[in-house]
Write a structure and sequence with these properties.
The complex is a heterodimer of chains A (108) and B (121).
Chain A: E1 9-12, E2 18-23, E3 33-37, E4 44-47, E5 61-66, E6 69-74, E7 83-90, E8 97-99, E9 103-107
Parallel strand pairs in A: 1-9
Antiparallel strand pairs in A: 2-6, 3-4, 3-7, 5-6, 7-8, 7-9
Chain B: E1 3-6, E2 10-13, E3 18-25, E4 33-39, E5 45-52, E6 57-60, E7 69-73, E8 78-83, E9 92-101, E10 106-111, E11 115-120
Parallel strand pairs in B: 2-11
Antiparallel strand pairs in B: 1-3, 3-8, 4-5, 4-9, 5-6, 7-8, 9-10, 9-11
Classes of the chains: A mainly beta (108), B mainly beta (121).
Chain lengths: 108, 121
């Protein structure tokens, strides 16, 4: 099955920049999406189509893509950004959806 | 406003059957795929499969093929996830989400609140 690889954890101090990466073979062909999930809540999309930000998502969230890697960047991290973040994409044929394993962002 | 409303929590015994639901509103239900996502306790998100209510075209993750059945009733804007014989390892939160295609990309833009399924041995 298709796999996306994320680091299990990232830690930053408030006000710093957090970067979460996601790697997979088909990312040059398929867009990536990023979801934020806080405990006891459903996921919320924070970035779609690699770098687009939905309305209502703060401007400190941004996304970028380079080859087989995509990156979620949170600039000026706030305590409320502490959550699990998941990347999601599809295989090269667009048949199968897949999630990364998730990254726990800790705000120190 | 797009909304996906899921059925309530379930407590079942191993070997029992179960069908949970996800009702869409605020958009054209037959024009978007609905995906099901599993989250086991303390674990990550897993795509199970998705259905296009317009024609009932269904795709399953290889990990879930044969383990569950995804269906939909377009007349009541509802998608379903069902098990014929539950196992304790099916204990998890199950989310439905609207899956949209954005030219070379599949993304989940709206999510249900989740249905907690607890299966005792």
């Amino acid at each position: 099955s298709y796999e996306l690889t994320q680091p299990p954890s990232v830690s930053v101090s408030p006000g710093q920049t957090a970067r979460i990466t996601c790697s997979a073979d088909a990312l040059p062909k398929q867009y990536a999406y990023w979801y934020q999930q806080k405990p006891g809540q459903a996921p919320v999309v924070v970035i779609y189509k690699d770098s687009e930000r939905p309305s209502g998502i703060p401007g400190r969230f941004s996304g970028s893509s380079s080859g087989t890697k995509v990156t979620l960047t949170i600039s000026g991290v706030q305590a409320e950004d502490e959550a699990d973040y998941y990347c999601q994409s599809a295989d090269s044929s667009g048949t199968y959806v897949a999630f990364g394993g998730g990254t726990k962002l800790t705000v120190l | 406003e797009v909304q996906l409303e899921q059925s309530g929590a379930e407590v079942k015994k191993s070997g029992e059957s179960l069908k949970i639901s996800c009702q869409g509103s605020g958009y054209s239900f037959t024009s978007y795929w609905i995906a099901w996502v599993r989250q086991m306790p303390g674990k990550g998100l897993e795509w199970m499969g998705n259905i296009y209510p317009g024609d009932s075209d269904t795709r399953y993750s290889p990990s879930f093929q044969g383990q569950v059945t995804i269906s939909a009733d377009e007349s009541i804007f509802t998608a379903y996830l069902q098990w014929s014989s539950l196992k304790a390892s099916d204990t998890a939160m199950y989310f439905c989400a609207r899956l949209r295609y954005d030219s070379s990309g599949w993304g989940l833009d709206y999510w249900g609140q989740g249905t907690l399924v607890t299966v005792s041995a």
